[in-house]
Design goal:
There is one protein chain. With about 270 residues, the chain is α+β, with helices and mostly antiparallel strands. It has two domains: about 10-90, Winged helix-like DNA-binding domain superfamily/Winged helix DNA-binding domain (Arc Repressor Mutant, subunit A, Orthogonal Bundle), CATH 1.10.10.10; about 100-270, GAF domain (Beta-Lactamase). The protein contains ten helices and eight strands. The protein has a six-stranded antiparallel beta sheet with strand order 5-4-3-8-7-6, sandwiched between helices. A two-stranded antiparallel ribbon has the order 1-2. Helix 2 (about 45-55) packs across helix 3 and helix 5 runs antiparallel to helix 10 (about 255-270). The longest helix is centred in the middle third of the chain and has 17 residues, at about 100-115. The chain is globular, with a radius of gyration of 20 Å. The model has no long low-confidence stretch (mean pLDDT about 90).
Length: about 270
């Protein structure tokens, strides 16, 4: 799988398994699947590629693409007959970020965390069996895609996912880990469910989780969970990402982890007020 991201269509979402056929609109679903095909895939795609990615018949894909293009959500290159998402898609992201209370509340804790650590800091939220980055505060040189909001990664191999799951009831956490898909993203990705459960238990004891090169070679991440009302079967986390081997464990304990835990606690208090 590409290290760029994880298509939303691969995320485990119970809503798609509990469908009232009287209300469910299959045409809308096909259009959304066309849009999801661009997430984590090739930025520009032909009708044939979109047909293969969605599994729908070609005529349905053509109609969906035509409609999305006329509505402004897709643009095309007449010379190559390839389509890509347009800037109008940003309207949906803006609407979500503007309406989300946690995004606004996280700005001050993230700014403080960035100032005190000098490293890249982020806010993520649980989405099915993935995490989705909502705010990114990069410093220094990073791969372009790694610093963008909206990036989706699996729960099991991210420090943020493990941190979030450390707040879950243990039985529910174990059930999720044993039933979620586990694919290696790098040579360092841990895919043994028992080992992942051990790391989540450790995060529960320490108040933070860690991953080293499991999603992106050369990158380490440390995350602390954010507690908020109604989070028992969801979650959020603050992250610090940094080049691996930049700090010793003792230096992380002294220079990074206390500030991370304080920022997560600050956000938790804001969300609980």
């Amino acid at each position: 799988m590409s290290q760029i991201g994880r298509p939303a269509s691969q995320a485990k979402d119970d809503n798609v398994h509990d469908i009232d056929k009287r209300l469910f609109n299959a045409s809308v679903r096909k259009a959304m699947e066309v849009l999801e095909a661009f997430n984590g895939g090739t930025p520009e795609q032909t009708i044939g590629q979109l047909t293969a990615a969605t599994g729908a018949d070609r005529s349905s894909v053509q109609r969906a693409v035509y409609t999305l293009q006329k509505m402004g959500y897709l643009s095309s290159d007449p010379g190559t007959r390839r389509y890509r998402v347009s800037e109008k898609m940003m309207d949906m992201s803006f609407a979500f970020l503007r309406a989300d209370r946690m995004v606004e509340a996280a700005l001050s804790p993230l700014a403080l965390l960035s100032e005190r650590t000098g490293e890249s800091v982020h806010l993520s939220r649980m989405s099915g069996s993935d995490i989705v980055y909502l705010l990114r505060w990069p410093t220094g040189m990073q791969q372009h895609f790694a610093s963008l909001p909206g990036r989706r990664l699996p729960l099991f191999c991210t420090s943020g996912g493990r941190a979030m799951l450390s707040l879950w009831p243990r039985d529910a956490m174990i059930d999720l880990i044993r039933n979620c898909p586990m694919e290696s993203r790098t040579a360092k990705t841990i895919t043994d469910p028992d080992r992942v459960i051990e790391l989540i238990d450790l995060a529960r004891d320490l108040g933070y989780a860690r991953s080293d090169g499991e999603c992106l070679i050369g990158e380490s991440a440390i995350s602390s969970p954010v507690q908020f009302p109604g989070d028992q079967h969801s979650g959020a986390a603050l992250h610090v990402t940094l080049p691996d081997s930049k700090y010793t464990d003792a230096e992380l304990e002294a220079k990074i982890i206390p500030h991370l835990k304080n920022a997560a606690q600050m956000l938790s208090q804001i969300m609980s007020s």
